[in-house]
């Protein structure tokens, strides 16, 4: 038997036809999506709440800093409030840094969420289009295959 005609030779083209006909993979995908989506949504909401609290804290620290500076100017006494003002300014700086980190994290979560939604819509569209009657509807066009691969790459990028 020739090496080229062996039955263990496979091609990616042979497997593309089975893309929409794998109920186990579809069920697994739906299960993973149903597990991950609530967690991502909950994390997103908690980040929003934390950012709101940090903005409020930053505003209060700024007002306290201004008030301490006014008190220091009015009193003109030997009280050393400069060290406290510096500590407040340092705390405000740290809060700003954490707020920026949270904002970038939230943006990344939003991108992941969008990628997940996009993949879900594509998979549902592919499942709706697939039909148990006839082979013509089960074969994906080259453009559809490229779109699916792009969606998979976007998902992997944010893992």
TrEMBL record:
Pfam families: Snapin_Pallidin. Keywords: Coiled coil. GO terms for molecular function: SNARE binding. GO terms for biological process: endosome to lysosome transport; intracellular protein transport; lysosome localization; lysosome organization; regulation of synaptic vesicle exocytosis; synaptic vesicle exocytosis. InterPro entries: Snapin, Snapin/Pallidin/Snn1. GO terms for cellular component: BLOC-1 complex; BORC complex; synaptic vesicle. Belongs to the SNAPIN family. PANTHER family: SNARE-ASSOCIATED PROTEIN SNAPIN. This is Biogenesis of lysosome-related organelles complex 1 subunit 7. It comes from Bombus vosnesenskii. The lineage of its organism: Eukaryota, Metazoa, Ecdysozoa, Arthropoda, Hexapoda.
